[in-house]
Amino acid sequence: MTDDTLPSSSLPENLTEKRIRDLLQRPDSPAHAILSFAQLDGVSVQHGHAHIALSTSRENAEKLTPIRSAVEAEIAKLPGLTGATLSLTSHRPNTPQPAPPQPAGHRPFNLGKGKPAHAIVPDVTTVIAVASGKGGVGKSTTAVNLAVSLAKTGLKTGLLDADIYGPSLPRMLGQSTRPEVKDSRIIPIEAWGIKTMSIGYLVDEKQAMIWRGPMVMGALTQFLGEVEWGHLDVLVIDMPPGTGDAQLTLAQKLGPKLAKGGAVIVSTPQDIALIDARRGVSMFERMETPILGIVENMSYFCCPNCNHRTELFGHGGARAEAENASVPFLGEIPLLAAIRASGDDGTPITLSAPESEAALAYTRLAETIAETIKTKL
């Protein structure tokens, strides 16, 4: 029995991957056309489904769209396959940069002619990084309500969603307007008394950001240097989860302004989240960024019917971690359905229900941080 006569499910994946590469390289194959517009980065097969990674320019990505489905269908006909997906990674070609010099790395947003380099948030006095060692702990909800509450104290406030792969700020603020570009500068979207920017304003909500590190760093650099933030007392940054390149880049570029503000670490009470929060504290300490404190989110749940308090994820872990790390403990945020609903509805709970237990907790957090900031203005 030859390889061609093997049942589809029996074909070795490396053999199937070789056949995909051969098909793409054959000049007589219609699938070969994609190599006129893209470079083959990799091929993998999992459970009969082929994933083909291609790198291309943004301009050529548009040319691939009309033939993409046909190529996927042709590849899926190969023995051993049940389907195929082409993944496009868009990048800018490596070409000499004209004067004036451009920021390091890729620049994914075309802001018009000239593309001048700009200083990093020149009119922003202080920066607060809202961070966590992992996702899913309520960091973005905390950042949004903190920013809105800081503005209510009288501080001119901005909010930057730095999570390129999972932007949530537009939905949580109820905004879908695409920002204007004037003189190669992005005009931030104003919502609920604050200036805001997110990649979610620039791409479709369903679009996956299949970007490599240089593209992400380039986008963050443009958000810092090519957004018309104007004068702000404080810029709150909803940091991406983890302690990788994006976090280090932001900490390095914003060093002096972060030194006037600092980092707020968000965690839930259970040990598995506190391990990652500990990493976040360690990263900022190594970057010589002040730690404003740790917030315990989802600290407890109160039944809306009987007011019985249940500590679903444990309780007090963040306070204990703050004491061990010798950093301030900034308070407890309860786990309430109203917080989730306010985020989905696009109105922060500090505005939709300002007297609620959750809103008061966010307000106390903002007042504590505002006192620290105002001493440095």
TrEMBL record:
Family affiliation: Belongs to the Mrp/NBP35 ATP-binding proteins family.
Gene3D superfamilies, sorted: P-loop containing nucleotide triphosphate hydrolases (3.40.50.300)
Example GO BP: iron-sulfur cluster assembly
GO terms, molecular function: 4 iron, 4 sulfur cluster binding; ATP binding; ATP hydrolysis activity; ATP-dependent FeS chaperone activity; metal ion binding
Protein name: Iron-sulfur cluster carrier protein
Subunit structure: Homodimer.
Binding site for ATP: 133-140
Domain of life: Bacteria
Keywords tagged on the record: ATP-binding, Hydrolase, Iron, Iron-sulfur, Metal-binding, Nucleotide-binding
Xref: PANTHER family: IRON-SULFUR PROTEIN NUBPL (PTHR42961:SF2)
Cited function: Binds and transfers iron-sulfur (Fe-S) clusters to target apoproteins. Can hydrolyze ATP.
The organism of origin for this protein: Neokomagataea tanensis
